[in-house]
């Protein structure tokens, strides 16, 4: 009997990259009769959270863990994005070996990488697989990636110093250079060169699977699909999100606490798997939440100078509660609950007591908030999160963005005012709530049986199947 068509996935390190790829693989296996194998490069022993995901793969999805690459010769200040790209590019020969071990017993149809993994395309070409990118961010970000080569040629200063905002093709709002992703904010850093390299490589893929949906970013998706810059076909197939519980973390306490709170009364505060605040900022946030007099559930990580200190592990090394202001825990008793490092975010956002989300604007968190109709306070930290914050607050208008003061901090008063406005439905907040509820309905439609995203994914699968018969 002929084997099922198999799709190879190569994720770059980080939970935010792995989770949506796994969910896409599940759709391919459960809804389209394909099989999937994850070939997983790593830069050290795999983090616990990652192993839990790999080990709980359902039938039809397998994984091969590659030997870790060594980065002992990289300078300490090497950016995360450089490490992602080098992890994959240094693993190309072991990826080739892994693919070779599958070729005899599988009909390999496509290789899917994420946005930092385009160096693996050479392996796809050798084994005559189609080469696709799963783009785990917004259409706005994808458009900026395609536009980046041009920007590089015409902008001679650092982007953060650009005097005027500019338009990313297809986007309704202007962005400032300082809102472009972190890795491009220092042209002298190697991350810039690597980002540009990967951006250019997006053009050589056979197609891009975009984790967004037409009704969310209609104009941008349309412009991308016109392919005016010679882009490959773009398929909006989102929202693709993980659906539920993860083992190994104490999930019960915060959900039980939410059960006892009034409807829509709790602000969920979380900066994703990797986001960390400085000690000073952590202190301001604590005081701001206290001043707001609103209920909150806060996933606290120990402070760090770097904004993405826990990206690879999702866990704090030190007890985060030790860094909170004196007496804080006593003062907020009954009104606020703190959880160290990790919370079951999907269950929290889908809980009826949750009424707002102060988020770092990671794209998965943004989509999860939209899918559950929870309005946002947009507090971007790193990566492409500032572009997401622009999309959330200025284009979609489903969130409020706090101002950063002259010391580079979001001050306690600013936090308290925004939290109160959002949770009490004051002023613009009630419009925000209505808008996000409309998008919630559109998200459900997009991935329904007749939805645009469902149809787009089927189109891709049909293409894969037909080319490899
Ligand atoms: N997440 C979670 N609990 C946490 C932090 C994060 O379940 O305490 C999940 C969240 O639901 C999302 C992913 O981890 O699916 C984070 O992805 P995102 O793109 O928002 O941010 P990143 O962590 O990649 O910066």
Automatic annotation (TrEMBL):
Pathway: Pigment biosynthesis; anthocyanin biosynthesis. Its EC number is 2.4.1.-. Keywords: Glycosyltransferase, Transferase. Belongs to the UDP-glycosyltransferase family. This is Glycosyltransferase. It is an enzyme of class 2 (transferase). InterPro entries: UDP_glucos_trans, UDP_glycos_trans_CS. It comes from Erythroxylum novogranatense. It comes from the Eukaryota. It catalyses: an anthocyanidin + UDP-alpha-D-glucose + H(+) = an anthocyanidin 3-O-beta-D-glucoside + UDP. GO terms for molecular function: anthocyanidin 3-O-glucosyltransferase activity.
